[in-house]
């Protein structure tokens, strides 16, 4: 199985120590987390983690099961890049005189849709949002023009075919587990494996 | 000043406030929670940060038995032993800092072997958290990888809920250790006690996956079509209290069944369908035939690498049915054709309805044939040696004859553990207490103490090597003080035997630091007021074991066995199970 980029979306209770409980599941297997974002989710009181890693599907599936096993985790999903819509945000600080004096810089900023957040005499801060490659390309380009400071956020992602977590949360609040709580990749897919 | 005042108040017991609301201290609430959960025994060790709880315990002494261990690691192992023989949650008290860090080995052991244990640790005052205060350790973060759940309480009002959740999480689903860290201010704090409510639902926690009828149908279809089906059973049967369901299932289907180390006593050893133990030092037939069966049915076991050997050559010819309560175990090591997620107490009866009553005589005779080879090549000589030097196996054989298979056998880790697991007879469940997943030397003695408290009417024999006994020998003090009637059987080969065996087989006999000397154990035992004996002649063996068993109280018996005996059969590391060596 080939390694590729996977985005893991984890719905959790908002309790102290969740990041640590989740992070050690990766570090234990010596897997680097490419990016990690925590935020509120569409469901009230439920926290949403977005984690990006580069791994095989087999490993990602195991990781998700081990994440879901944590008492305060409700659900962990994993998706490939074509199953999600995602963004990262970046901030760039460049000397204001470079922006005003150098025409290529202005063109760069226009091309990447960067907009100014703060303009001071000494420096200007731009922000842009997009995929990693776009942000990286702008960063590389600006590096030639005295880029003073650069920071990029973690990935945030929306799952294309997700209905959100409201319905699922209701199922979790019931005392009996719902049928969908665990999925079986074989079920109804490979009839042949069940016969001799 | 405030603090002192509160301490003084709490040691006077419960306080009734004016409006009929019960005011309790956090410490009292902890003990009330234990009583409400039916806890009767606590293993612990006091210290600065847990003093308020111990102060309250002074007034609960008539309802809660507290066993003062000699090291916190021993406390967790004792709680594990207690949990394994009683089927209940083991409880441990420890103080902050070193008290809590000493728990780690025990927690890791309980985590990997799914033992329900609740540890309550004291912690420095909340306002001191993060300041490197005296005996402060970040216990929550240190224990996160080795606990099923942990939680820090900084306000007494949280105590009833936190403990209710702790017990619920520790004992349900796949059981495991839980740690509750309580700051000293919360232990001292008085609050309006709302009463204790047992927890049975946490929204983010699914102890049991729902059973899908499709799995059951598919599994039954495979089993009914199978010509060479083979069952592997683990501790899940015991944890799920599904021994009867399991036995009924194998008897209806006529399928040969082999145990993991942790599952051994789930089915009585002499059952005609019990074909032995799996794994690196397991029996010949179940290892070899794993690679011949057509349907492999794994029940409550997790395909540990010591069971599977080389994974890419493990049961590749077989369709695999995996029954487990923990979804994370499915496909983790061995891909399941049919994953039967659920509690085997529920899934086995459902499966039972759909499987055909059958016998597999020809297939079963394959096991018996290989077994007779193993008897000829290994077992006969191990149990009835023709050489003058005593073997571990013959000690176990005579022990079996004397106890009739009714004893609880607790083992430490190493050669003696493998020999005991291979040859000990078990008539009933919850009789085999050993450190399976973690392989913790030093587990045996404290675990045996807990095992005895879990079932004080049974004979508890702790079989321990000369290495392991020296790791937690201080627990003899616990036995001395509280009189646990543990029979300590030291099989002394004057080596760290298992490591020596590997050095012999795989490192050209370069014996590097495996030569270990022992104190005079009988004198040590005597120092602790424990009767003992040491023997080195075969003629003395039966009488010595009889004396040990019949002695009314704890007893230590050292048996000098062959120095360089090896445990066989053996699946060498990196080999397939079917490449198991008989010599």
Can you characterise this structure?
Chain A folds into two domains: 4-84 and 157-186, Alpha-Beta Plaits; 87-152, Alpha-Beta Plaits (2-Layer Sandwich), CATH 3.30.70.1150. Chain A contains six helices and nine strands, in the order E-H-E-E-H-E-E-H-H-E-E-H-E-E-H. Chain A has helices spanning 18-27, 57-68, 96-101, 103-111, 132-143, 166-173, and strands spanning 4-13, 35-40, 46-55, 73-80, 84-95, 115-119, 123-130, 149-152, 156-159. Chain A starts with a strand and ends in a 23-residue tail after the last helix. The model of chain A is unreliable at 187-196 (pLDDT under 50). By secondary structure, chain B is an alpha/beta fold. Chain B has three domains: 2-192, Rossmann fold (3-Layer(aba) Sandwich); 213-366, Rossmann fold; 390-564, Thiamin diphosphate (ThDP)-binding fold, Pyr/PP domains (Rossmann fold). In chain B, 38% of the residues lie in helices and 17% in strands. Chain B contains 23 helices and 21 strands. The model of chain B is unreliable at 1-18 (pLDDT under 50). Chains A and B meet through helix 1, helix 2 and helix 6 of A and strand 7, helix 10 and strand 15 of B.
Descriptors for this entry?
heterodimer; A: 196 residues; alpha+beta; Alpha-Beta Plaits; five-stranded antiparallel beta sheet; four-stranded antiparallel beta sheet; 9 strands; disordered C terminus; B: 583 residues; alpha/beta; Rossmann fold; 3 domains; six-stranded parallel beta sheet; 23 helices; 21 strands; 38% helix; disordered N terminus
Shape of chain A: elongated
**Quantity of strands of chain B, as a count:** 21
Most extensive contact: A-B, 36 and 40 residues
Average pLDDT of chain B, rounded to a whole number, is 95
Q: Kindly, what is the distance between the CA atoms of the first and last residues of chain B, rounded to a whole number of angstroms?
A: 72 Å
Please report the distance between the alpha carbons of the first and last residues of chain A: 27 Å
CATH superfamily of the largest domain in chain A: ACT domain
Spans of chain B of 5+ residues with little confidence (pLDDT < 50)? 1-18
Q: Give the CATH H-level superfamily of the largest domain in chain B.
A: Thiamin diphosphate (ThDP)-binding fold, Pyr/PP domains
Secondary structure class of chain B reads alpha/beta
Assign the CATH class of the largest domain in chain A.
Answer: Alpha Beta
Write out the strand line-up for the largest beta sheet of chain B, numbering strands in chain order. Answer: 4-3-5-6-8-7
Output the CATH class name of the largest domain in chain B.
Alpha Beta
């Amino acid at each position: 199985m080939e390694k590729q980029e996977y985005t893991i979306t984890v719905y959790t209770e908002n309790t102290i120590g969740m990041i640590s409980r989740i992070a050690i599941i990766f570090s234990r297997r010596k897997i680097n987390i490419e990016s990690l974002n925590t935020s509120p989710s569409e469901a009230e009181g439920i926290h949403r983690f977005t984690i990006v890693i580069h791994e095989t599907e087999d490993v990602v599936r195991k990781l998700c099961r081990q994440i879901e096993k944590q008492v305060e985790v409700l659900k962990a999903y994993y998706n490939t890049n074509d199953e999600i819509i995602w963004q990262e945000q970046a901030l760039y600080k460049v000397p204001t005189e470079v922006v005003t004096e150098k025409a290529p810089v202005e063109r760069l900023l226009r091309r990447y849709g960067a907009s100014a957040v703060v303009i001071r005499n000494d420096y200007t801060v731009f922000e842009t949002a997009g995929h990693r490659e776009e942000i990286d390309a702008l960063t590389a380009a600006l590096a030639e023009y005295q880029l003073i400071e650069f920071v990029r956020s973690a990935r945030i992602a929306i799952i294309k075919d997700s209905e959100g977590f409201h319905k699922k949360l209701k199922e979790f609040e019931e005392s009996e587990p719902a049928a969908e709580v665990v999925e079986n990749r074989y079920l109804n897919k490979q009839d042949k494996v069940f016969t001799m | 000043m405030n603090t002192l005042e509160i301490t003084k108040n709490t040691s006077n017991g419960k306080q009734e406030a004016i409006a009929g609301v019960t005011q309790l201290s956090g410490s009292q609430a902890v003990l009330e929670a234990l009583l409400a959960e039916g806890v009767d025994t606590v293993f612990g060790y006091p210290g600065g940060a847990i003093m308020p709880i111990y102060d309250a315990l002074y007034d609960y002494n008539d309802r809660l038995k507290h066993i003062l261990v000699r090291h916190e690691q021993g406390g967790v192992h004792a709680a594990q032993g207690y949990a394994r023989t009683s089927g209940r949650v083991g409880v441990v008290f420890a103080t902050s800092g070193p008290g809590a860090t000493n728990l780690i080995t025990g927690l890791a052991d309980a985590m990997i072997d799914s033992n329900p244990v609740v540890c309550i640790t004291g912690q420095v005052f909340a306002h001191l958290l993060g300041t490197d205060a005296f005996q402060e350790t970040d216990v929550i973060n240190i224990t996160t990888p080795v606990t099923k759940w942990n939680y820090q309480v900084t306000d007494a009002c949280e105590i009833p809920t936190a403990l209710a959740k702790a017990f619920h999480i520790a004992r349900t689903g796949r059981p495991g250790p839980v740690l509750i860290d309580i700051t000293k201010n919360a232990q001292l704090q008085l609050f309006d006690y709302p009463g204790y409510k047992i927890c049975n639902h946490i929204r983010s926690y699914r102890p049991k996956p729902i059973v899908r009828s499709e799995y059951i149908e598919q599994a039954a279809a495979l089993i009914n079509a199978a010509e060479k089906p083979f069952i592997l059973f683990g501790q899940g049967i015991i944890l799920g209290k599904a021994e009867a369901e399991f036995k009924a299932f194998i008897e209806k289907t006529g399928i040969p069944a082999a145990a993991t180390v942790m599952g051994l006593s789930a089915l009585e050893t002499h059952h005609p369908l019990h074909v032995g133990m799996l794994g690196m030092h397991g029996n010949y037939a179940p290892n070899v035939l794993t690679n011949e069966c057509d349907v492999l049915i794994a029940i409550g076991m997790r395909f540990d690498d010591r069971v599977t050997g080389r994974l890419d050559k493990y049961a590749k010819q077989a369709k695999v049915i995996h029954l487990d309560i923990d979804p994370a175990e499915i496909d983790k090591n061995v891909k399941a054709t049919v994953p039967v997620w659920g509690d085997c107490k529920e899934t086995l009866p459902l499966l039972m309805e759909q499987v055909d009553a059958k016998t597999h005589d020809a297939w079963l005779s394959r096991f018996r044939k290989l077994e007779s080879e193993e008897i000829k090549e290994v077992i006969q000589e191990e149990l009835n040696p023709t050489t003058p030097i005593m073997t571990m196996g013959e000690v176990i054989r005579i022990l079996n004859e004397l106890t009739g298979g009714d004893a609880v056998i607790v083992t430490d880790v190493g050669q003696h553990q493998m020999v005991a697991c291979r040859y000990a007879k078990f008539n009933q469940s919850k009789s085999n207490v050993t450190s399976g997943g973690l392989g913790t030397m030093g587990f045996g003695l404290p675990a045996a103490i807990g095992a005895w408290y879990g079932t004080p009417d049974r004979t508890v024999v702790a079989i321990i090597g000369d290495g392991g006994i020296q790791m937690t020998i201080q627990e003899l003090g616990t036995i001395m003080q509280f009189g646990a009637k543990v029979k300590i059987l030291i099989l002394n080969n004057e080596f760290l035997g298992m490591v020596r065996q590997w050095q012999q087989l795989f490192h050209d006999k370069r014996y590097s630091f495996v030569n270990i000397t022992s104190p005079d154990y009988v004198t040590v035992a005597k120092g602790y007021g424990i009767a003992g004996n040491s023997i080195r002649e075969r003629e003395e063996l039966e009488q010595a074991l009889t004396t040990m068993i019949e002695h009314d109280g704890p007893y230590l018996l050292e048996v000098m066995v062959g120095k360089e005996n090896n445990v066989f059969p053996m699946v060498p590391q990196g080999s397939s199970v079917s490449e198991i060596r008989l010599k």
